[in-house]
Specification:
Elements lengths: L4 H15 L14 E5 L4 E5 L13 H15 L7 E5 L5 H13 L5 E6 L7 H8 L5 E6 L8 H12 L9 E7 L15 H15 L4 E5 L4 H15 L6 H12 L4 H15 L6
Parallel strand pairs: 1-4, 3-6, 3-7, 4-5, 5-6
Antiparallel strand pairs: 1-2
Helix pairs in contact: 2-3, 4-5, 5-6, 7-8, 7-9
């Protein structure tokens, strides 16, 4: 090698180093209990504590009991199942996941929740690997999950939950919410070869099987809806004549009864009465 070759190689190496992607920043999990994962930069952004109290979720007592029991086992280092919360919109699926986490986190200092966007499901294997082996225990939440982009994302989720040759990380619990028990978008097989469409469908349906705990949220009946309204009104000191009649009229205008609709009615009532809400 000539004397002039070393500087040339050094410049090439420096140029390649500049072109290489930078390492993601080291996460600081002492800053908060809730985090949002930004897939583009592999960064964990702290988020404020979730304010809704678990006991304010009315009409989903059996769902609360099953989810909290599973989460309690995970927090205590006992065997647990990844959880799929599925059912109608506004039933309280994501609220249950976050409110239950906050209740248990008060007694488990090492418990953290990381939320990942459903469009970044393909990043789950890398995320799980980053969390593996850390002293904290992580609930990874993906809200409104479905596979609009097809089977590739389904394979990524399966890979994360199964962990490959290393096995799944014992300190990570996956929680997904969806409007459908089987995580396929409707109509996704249009304009596809029938065999390929059937294979994709099998791939996507099989993802649901990786969740050991399925918790369904059926439509809320009228009494459960009114119970939710009364619970909110009592908690925040909102007195109103003909509370039930007004709440039912509100739900009729929305064309639905759910915990979300009950909360929206309460927000409207609080604004009318000039009372701020702590949430």
């Amino acid at each position: 090698m000539t004397d002039g070759a070393d500087p040339l190689l050094l410049r090439i190496a420096e140029a390649l180093e500049r072109l290489a992607p930078s390492r993601p920043p080291a996460p600081d999990f002492a800053a908060a209990r809730l985090y949002r994962y930004e897939a583009a930069t592999a960064a964990f952004h702290p988020a404020p504590d979730y304010a809704l109290a678990l006991d304010l979720l009315v009409g989903v007592e059996s769902q609360k009991s099953r989810f909290v029991e599973n989460l309690h086992r995970f927090a205590g280092g006992l065997p647990f199942n990844h959880a799929l919360l599925w059912g109608v919109r506004g039933a309280g699926k994501s609220s249950l996941a976050k409110a239950a986490f906050m209740e248990l986190a008060s007694g488990h200092a090492n418990l953290r929740l990381v939320e990942i966007d459903r469009d970044h499901v393909s990043e789950l294997p890398a995320l799980f690997d980053r969390l593996r082996g850390r002293p904290e225990r992580f609930v990874v939440l993906c809200d409104d999950l479905s596979f609009e982009e097809g089977a590739a994302a389904a394979k990524s989720l399966k890979s994360a939950l199964e962990g490959g040759v290393s096995g799944p990380p014992e300190n990570v619990m996956m929680v997904a919410t969806s409007n459908r028990r089987h995580l396929m978008p409707r109509g996704h097989q249009e304009d596809r070869d029938l065999i390929a469409a059937a294979e994709d469908a099998e791939e996507e349906v099989s993802v649901s099987d990786r969740f050991g705990l399925w918790i369904g949220f059926p439509p809320m009946d009228q009494q459960a809806y009114l119970d939710a309204v009364h619970a909110y009104a009592a908690r925040f000191g909102l007195a109103s004549a003909e509370l039930e009649r007004r709440a039912l009229q509100w739900s009729q205008l929305r064309g639905a009864r759910s915990g979300r609709v009950a909360w929206q009615f309460i927000r409207d009532l609080a604004g009318e009465l000039g009372k701020p809400l702590p949430l």
